[in-house]
Amino acid sequence: MQAQPGAALHHEVVINDLGGFLRSRRERLGPVEAGIAPGHTRRRVPGLRREELAELAGVSVGYYTRLERGVSTSASAAVIDSLAAALRLDPAEHDHLRVLAAPHRPSRPQARRSRVRPSVRELLAALTMPAVVIDHRAEVLAWNGLGHLLLAGHVAFTAPDGRVRPNIARMVFLDPHHRALYRDWRAKALVTTAALHQAVARHPADPVLEQLVGQLAVDSVEFARMWARRPVKTCSYYVREMDHPVVGRVTLANETVTLPDEDQQLGLFYAQAGTADADALALLGQLR
């Protein structure tokens, strides 16, 4: 019996190592982009060779090789900045590289269930726009009535208070109702994968998060392929085009605000006043 593609990647996806990220970005960068003459010899590997990148970053080939192979698991800020410049990393990727290369990362298992402050629940109830609070595992901790109807009206409103909470990542990849909500599903899926990728770097000792990523890789070939690319994006503001099962097509701004609570985020969805999209949200609100 042939193995599932995701199952073959299970071991890889639960490891978010410094070496793997460096290798993925080295293989992405071509010699011309890096300012290196292509030469006449045929390249046997994609992207830059290790010695080329080491020279661009001003480090020895041996040292860079130890980083990429995981023999060395941390590096100084100066080395990280040099590697980021040589690899042409964007600001989000540069910050992610700093997190991966930071020494003395926590190793104690962190499986505690996230909780929402009562004041945040009061804020959700007071908001007149769809709103949802998620943690670093993409678990839905709470939502208001409009947020529930917009994102997952097919599940119970009280589901975030249950033993198994709704999980945005699981819904994006495995729930056909939620998946159908996004007109550009691939963009949403890539951002979701990037958020989990960065969360694993910040919480390397979280067994619940590790289990989530590993199980998604087994259950979704699309997730496994996206994860293998090690995407990194700053998730703050997007325009979401949605096909809602009740109010139809709607375009909403999606703003994400980081809360000072155990790596929690508040997601807000809103439309410009006086537009058809605002009318659609008003109609949805009448269904509560």
TrEMBL record:
Cited PROSITE patterns: HTH_CROC1
Single GO MF descriptor: DNA binding
Ranges for domain HTH cro/C1-type: 47-94
One Pfam family per UniProt: MLTR_LBD
Protein name from the UniProt record: Helix-turn-helix domain-containing protein
Organism: Lentzea xinjiangensis
